[in-house]
Amino acid sequence: LDGALDLERIGRLAADLNPDVVTLQEIDREVDRTGGVDQAAEYGSLTGMEARFGDFMEYQGGHYGMAVLSGLPILETVNHRLPDGAEPRTALTVRVRLPGTGREAVISGIHFYRTEEERMAQAKYLMDALAGEEGLVVLAGDFNSLPGSPVMELLNTEWAITEKAGNPFTFPANEPAREIDFILVRPEQGFRVLDYRVLDEAVASDHRLVFMVLEF
């Protein structure tokens, strides 16, 4: 929000959290406005994590979309094409192997957009796409939906929506007034949330970062 395009700053922020998986929204790959850089690959290099990019659409000579970074082995990557709205949208989804147990988990990066009708269609499509997944399934990102809204109520029929510790507001980052970013977990049993909060970072993004620690 200070007007500086600084991938190293965001990369350091992600690396300092020592995360297993990071979902990132509004990512450019070889786009003119951001210097033609493959941002997902750059974040992978800066964090030492495996990077995956999922494009929404072609834009300014490259592609615009989402990224997932993983410190866990990525077994599969699927960029689920969601129903279009004002802009195309996808849910970039990775299957990873969890440490110790060897079990698998599915993590899907979210950026629903723009009207309630569009977001509802996108949520329903993704629920159908992930219906056959057993074990841990995580949705993480920008839902553009408030707690108690129809979209979140629908997702809450399958995913646990845990209450954040402290101030839950995530947008806008400089003066947060709304909670529209979440990490949802399915199934609702078999895990404990050890930490779930909004990070005090007001510059790196126009949204505050959301952080969760799960124990199984």
Percent helix range: 10-25%
The dominant shape is globular
Strand order of the largest sheet: 4-5-6-7-8
For the termini, the CA-CA separation is 36 Å
What value does the average pLDDT take?
96
User: From N to C, what is the helix and strand string?
Assistant: HEHEEEEEHEHEEE
Structure summary, number of beta strands: 10
Largest sheet: 5 strands, mixed
* Estimated radius of gyration: 16 Å
The structure class reads alpha+beta
Beta content: 35-45%
**Count of helical segments?**
4
Residue stretches low in confidence (pLDDT < 50, at least 5 long) are: none
Question: What does this protein structure show overall?
Answer:
This protein is of the alpha+beta class. Helices cover 18% and strands 37% of the residues. It contains four helices and ten strands; from the N terminus they run αβαβββββαβαβββ. It has helices at 7-16, 39-47, 116-129, 150-155, and strands at 21-29, 50-59, 62-70, 74-82, 89-97, 104-111, 136-142, 181-186, 192-198, 210-215. The protein has a five-stranded mixed β-sheet, covered by helices on one side. A three-stranded antiparallel β-sheet has the order 1-3-2. A hairpin with a 6-residue loop joins strand 5 and strand 6. Helix 1 (7-16) packs across helix 2. The longest helix has 14 residues, at 116-129. It is globular. The N and C termini lie far apart (36 Å).
